[in-house]
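Hey,
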Amino acid sequence: MPTVTYSRVGSLDIQLDYEIPPSVTAGSLSAVIYLHGGGILTGSRNDAFFSESMKELVLKNGAIFMAADYRLLYPSTGFDIIDDMKALFSFLSNPSFSEDHLPSGVSLDASRIALLGGSGGVYPAMAAGLYAQPKPKVLLLLFGMGGDVLGDSWVAPKDGFMPFPGSESVTEASLAHLLERTPLPISDAPVKVQPDQTLRDDQNRMGLFMHWWRTGEILDYVVGEPISATLRALPASERLAVVPTRLHPAILQACLDSEFPATCLVHGEQDGIVDPAESKTTYNRLMELGVKTELVLVPDAVHALMSPTNPAAPAVGAEAAYGKGWSFLFTELANS
């Protein structure tokens, strides 16, 4: 896939891959942008989380497939991710994108862009739904982070390890290279499958996600200030009131409004990595606001709609859930 830089911050290039349906030679096309997972701390637009079948499905439906990076938490914050999503949509909506990067006679219809966010990629997808101009037309949010960043799954310490392969080996000592010296901003940290089938990136930012999940500090790095300790001492219903107003834009759930794009949320009911309450909270709030929304829950699925068995396999009902999500997305893209 061709790669373009959609934003440059200092010396950091933030990039986008794209591919045009091979059968299309002319016309104004819709697009589906994939935003990768990785706990918002790691991952890349084309790493172990990437699915070729996802790309092929988009192309088969006549849309341009895109995969975009975004700045990762630490040292960047949720505010930086918001800026990246604004920059992405500004870049794509400018006629120069079609003129410079697409074949003659083919253009991108910036009013028909869908976002597919998975896991940590749901946070930037929701940020785009709130702050990008033009707004994405539809969001498909898969088992994702961002719907309830004030909940205990974000701010409360955990007694055990994250139910993710390799989490039991994560210690502060193994993360000293990150914790003792703030790293440079980064937007691309590909996750790779190790020989023991665990997932890891070169800097072990995945381990940092597991560590802060356990200590209940992830939110501190989203807003850029240490507020989790204060919040966890309060009932969940009282937490937003003590968050400084200047930090509210990064608390996405506090900013949802009736202009939010049509949204389908898919989540496993047994997910121990990203609490299904995140998707349920977003769904309930969007329903209150009158936004077109659907929630698809898979009863016996853990994270990524996998079964809790060993070895893991797609959960019963996972394929149907994905099918409902894709149907929602393509139906909304087709609506004028």
